[in-house]
TrEMBL record:
Keywords in alphabetical order: Transferase
Span of the signal peptide: none
Pfam families: Glycos_transf_1
Annotated source species: Photobacterium phosphoreum
Protein name: Glycosyltransferase family 1 protein
Lineage, highest ranks first: Bacteria, Pseudomonadati, Pseudomonadota, Gammaproteobacteria, Vibrionales
Length: 402
């Protein structure tokens, strides 16, 4: 069976690419499957036999003149070059299934119809809320909102300036959403893959008739093991308000117990944390063994998000090392963290409630160990790469009628 993997970046770039490249390699090494690629040209790209079909690099962060801005705006909604090259690739390679990942803006959803036109089965993995919310994150001024309350119209979202507080960017996002709604681009997806039940519900708010299958993210359980309790709490991720980092720093200052808080990552609230919470250990960006060792030896990992996390890799990684997770009760996190069993949930933004949960773990090392063991078991049984692979391959066979 021939699977065409489609993603706008063909190198490690973010969470979507981590899953995309992981799945691509997994399927490539599965007997009876052949993998082909479609993406965007970039100097960091991994090797691909189909690189001649890749579209020109599109960087929307660069400065553009008026004429260039008009072209960029058009390509943002419908990339004609991507459509032409994609169609030529399909004609030449004849894939059975096209698996779309992160295609928005650079490749555009216009290519979905081309796959259907040539008889391919289509899958789209929803790494973010783009299908439900044109601005990706369901955020207005850094706060989450419920798309079910926007009266079903993408145009109504424009007035909220939901994309970076910019009228022009929000208007362009609205135009894009209306265009693909009228073209019924997403209606040409045979199966959406949602990494969480919460993501499934969000897709259903916009596409109630869509076929959505929940397949959670996974990691290789054979490469991790239960670590030690090094006596510190840990946060890994972007330092931004919607990630709940200021709430975590405040909660740490409210704790009765004296337990260090280590914070990994960079972002816009870093200076605020440095200024107002000097007891927080800001370690910046780490990767590789240095990163994994600091996760492996934490007492617990905190995921204090105040926005709709999908299927948090931070939670899964923590579980893989036998770490309890204290997470915000929002988005997909409650599906991952079993409250009172593998960790604790707390009301997003409630620093005192978070502090109370941390104090419980700080004063009860046996509970930390017990929760960690259960977290590791849950990860192996539900969030391992073996489980992910089985469910994905089963979906391919089901779509292909085999």
């Amino acid at each position: 069976m021939k699977i065409l993997f489609v993603n706008k970046f063909f190198f490690p770039h973010g969470g979507a690419e981590t899953v995309f490249l992981q799945e691509r390699e997994m399927v490539k090494n599965t007997e009876g499957f052949e993998v082909i690629d479609f993406s965007m040209k970039h100097e960091k790209n991994l090797p691909s036999e189909q690189s001649e079909y890749f579209v020109d690099n599109v960087d929307y962060n660069n400065e553009h003149g008026l004429k260039s801005k008009l072209k960029v705006s058009r390509d943002f909604i419908h990339n004609q070059q991507a459509c032409e090259k994609f169609e030529q690739l399909i004609i030449n390679e004849k894939p059975d299934i096209v698996h779309f990942h992160n295609i928005y803006h650079q490749l555009t959803p216009s290519i979905i119809k081309i796959a259907k036109k040539h008889g391919c089965k289509t899958i789209l993995t929803a790494h973010d809320y783009k299908v439900a919310c044109p601005g990706y994150g369901c955020l207005i001024d850094g706060k989450v909102f419920d798309v079910k309350n926007i009266n079903g119209s993408f145009v109504n979202l424009f007035k909220y300036q939901w994309h970076e507080g910019s009228w022009s960017k929000s208007f362009l996002m609205s135009c894009e959403a209306v265009f693909h709604s009228l073209k019924k681009s997403y209606e040409n997806i045979d199966t959406f893959v949602a990494p969480s039940a919460f993501m499934k519900s969000m897709i259903k708010t916009r596409l109630p008739d869509a076929n959505v299958q929940v397949i959670v993210n996974g990691i290789d359980a054979s490469k991790t093991e239960i670590g030690e309790d090094g006596g510190y709490f840990l946060y890994c991720g972007r330092l931004s308000p919607e990630k709940g980092v200021p709430t975590l720093a405040k909660a740490h200052s409210l704790m009765k117990a004296d337990v260090p808080l280590k914070v990994l990552g960079n972002g816009p609230v870093k200076e605020l944390i440095e200024r107002e919470y000097p007891n927080v250990e800001l370690l910046g960006f780490l990767q590789g063994d240095e990163l994994f060792n600091i996760i492996k030896n934490a007492k617990a990992v905190i995921v204090p998000s105040e926005w709709y996390e999908n299927c948090s890799m931070s939670v899964i990684e923590a579980m893989s090392y036998g770490k309890p997770v204290v997470g915000g009760n929002i988005g997909g996190i409650p599906e991952q963290v079993l409250d009172g069993e593998t960790g604790f949930l707390f009301e997003p933004g409630n620093a005192q409630q978070l502090a109370d949960k941390l104090d419980i773990l700080a004063s009860n090392p046996e509970l930390v160990k017990e929760m960690g063991v259960k977290a590791r078991e849950r990860m192996v049984n539900k969030y391992s790469l073996d489980v992910h692979k089985h469910e994905l391959i089963s979906l391919y066979y089901s779509l292909a009628g085999k």
